[in-house]
């Protein structure tokens, strides 16, 4: 049986390794000269390979789109299986905060090379080329045509081309075009887990400022309701906001429309309004003869002080003993609800994953096979599934890749019988 896997990333290498070990003649077609390019830069080069969560239900809870579709894949190939596979390939692992699993070396290249070994040792061959067309006869897939004019015969094809995030690594949406040739609906791709551009110009003056313990809420101005809240670290940038809590928040801003969403920051989440007012009174009492702008340095980061003063409407040169109770109250409310209007996502080049992709209703969740074209399978980010950060997206790639790789040979065995 000839199996062609398109895309030598996490999902593709996993699928190739399992299909080859099940006896298939496997060829991996990769458009880059080097395999697993995106994996090599994952997690800023550290590679959060999975999350040590155990139950499929816990994994599904971290999936933002079509989580139930992944139940079978997670159940058949769990985070424990991922960890066992990598350690068997010579990559010792460690578990960090939030049950995030990393290679002990903190080197993503070690993970990429381990998956290459897994595929090659199983017997898979890797060829360089870009697939552009699925060839069919009598309602079955028979071959793939490449950009350079080759025709590669195959009894089954696994599309594992990734999404559109980090396009310089080769993820440019090729798999969507191939799936569409077979009649698959493609949910329009959009960036997810991506920094946000904001309307407020003061973001540029705060660029580089990191706030480690900040509560955020996302407000949908169209529906006039809160749609997400979180707590953690964020980063001001020249264009707006980034950092872990912002990346997670971005996944809930669908569809993205200019200024539909507002980020509301609580700069002092440990204090109630009354406690914050008491803190201000104490600080003002210790700086009774100073100007207002010089009395906030112990409360806020230095670069944030001028911004807060300007937004408060209180004169920077006003003596603190002249600040009224009403002004102080308004200042407290500003610090507890520091708002920024979101204008857009940053581009795909900066997104960790892609939301959208091959509509899962047209894919069998028990096998990852197309419901429209026998012999066509999908794995990884090309599917319309995406999750939070924390190793969950790579686990989706491992689980769907393993399931697709195992399923191709089972399908062929049934047909031959």
Tell me, what's the shape?
A: elongated
**CATH fold annotation of the largest domain:** FAD/NAD(P)-binding domain
Give the CATH level 1 class of the largest domain.
Alpha Beta
Q: Whole-Å distance between the termini?
A: 13 Å
- Tell me about the biggest sheet? 6 strands, antiparallel, barrel
Number of strands: 21
Topology, please?
Blueprint (H helix, E strand, L loop, with lengths): L1 E5 L3 H12 L3 E6 L19 E2 L4 H5 L2 E3 L5 H6 L2 H10 L4 E4 L3 E4 L4 H15 L2 E4 L2 E7 L2 E7 L4 E3 L2 E4 L14 H8 L4 E7 L3 E3 L3 H4 L4 E11 L4 E12 L3 E3 L1 H7 L10 E6 L6 H14 L18 H8 L12 H12 L1 E8 L7 E6 L17 E3 L7 E2 L4 H25 L1
Parallel strand pairs: 1-2, 1-11, 2-7, 11-20
Antiparallel strand pairs: 3-6, 4-21, 5-6, 8-9, 9-10, 12-19, 13-16, 13-18, 14-15, 14-17, 15-16, 17-18
Helix pairs in contact: 1-5, 1-12, 9-11
Explained architecture:
The chain has 417 residues and is an alpha+beta fold. It folds into two domains: 252 residues, FAD/NAD(P)-binding domain, CATH 3.50.50.60; 151 residues, no CATH class. Helix content is 30%, strand content 26%. It has twelve helices and 21 strands. Strands 13-16-15-14-17-18 form a six-stranded antiparallel β-barrel. A five-stranded parallel beta sheet has the order 7-2-1-11-20, sandwiched between helices. The two termini are 13 Å apart. The model has no long low-confidence stretch (mean pLDDT 96).
Structure summarized in a few sentences:
The chain is an alpha+beta fold and 417 residues long.
């Amino acid at each position: 049986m000839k199996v062609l896997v398109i895309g030598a990333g996490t999902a593709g290498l996993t699928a190739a390794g399992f299909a080859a070990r099940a006896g298939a003649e496997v060829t991996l077609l990769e458009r880059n000269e080097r395999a697993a390019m995106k994996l090599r830069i994952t997690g800023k080069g550290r590679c959060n390979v999975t999350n040590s969560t155990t139950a499929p239900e816990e994994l599904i809870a971290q999936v933002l789109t079509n989580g139930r579709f992944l139940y079978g894949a997670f159940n058949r190939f769990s985070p424990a299986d991922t960890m066992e596979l990598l350690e068997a390939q010579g990559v010792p692992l460690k578990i960090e905060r939030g049950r995030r699993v990393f290679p002990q070396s903190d080197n993503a290249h070690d993970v990429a090379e381990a998956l290459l070994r897994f595929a090659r040792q199983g017997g898979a061959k890797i060829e360089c080329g870009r697939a552009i067309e699925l060839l069919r006869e009598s309602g079955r897939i028979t071959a793939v045509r490449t950009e350079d004019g080759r025709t590669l015969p195959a009894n089954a094809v696994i599309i594992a081309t990734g999404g559109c995030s980090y396009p310089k690594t080769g993820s440019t949406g090729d798999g969507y075009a191939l799936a569409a040739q077979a009649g698959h609906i493609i949910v329009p791709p959009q960036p997810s887990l991506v920094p946000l551009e904001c309307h407020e110009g003061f973001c540029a003056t705060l660029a580089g400022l990191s706030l480690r313990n900040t509560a955020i809420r996302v407000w949908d101005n169209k529906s006039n309701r809160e749609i997400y809240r979180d707590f953690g670290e964020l980063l001001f940038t020249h264009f707006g906001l980034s950092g872990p809590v912002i990346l997670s928040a971005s996944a809930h801003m669908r569809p993205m429309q200019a200024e539909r969403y507002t980020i509301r920051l609580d700069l002092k989440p440990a204090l109630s309004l009354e406690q914050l007012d008491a803190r201000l009174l104490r600080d003002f009492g210790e700086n009774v003869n100073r100007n207002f702008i010089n009395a906030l340095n112990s409360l806020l980061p230095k670069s944030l002080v001028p911004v807060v003063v300007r937004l408060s409407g209180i004169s920077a040169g006003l003596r603190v003993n002249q600040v009224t109770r009403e002004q102080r109250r308004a200042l407290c409310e500003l610090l507890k609800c520091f708002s920024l209007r979101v204008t857009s996502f940053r581009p795909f080049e900066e997104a960790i994953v892609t939301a959208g992709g091959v509509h899962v209703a047209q894919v069998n969740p028990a096998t990852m096979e197309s419901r429209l074209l026998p012999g066509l399978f999908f794995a990884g980010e090309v599917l319309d599934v995406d999750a939070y950060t924390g190793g969950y997206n790579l686990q989706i790639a491992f689980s769907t890749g393993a399931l697709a790789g195992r399923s191709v040979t089972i399908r062929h065995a049934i047909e031959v019988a």
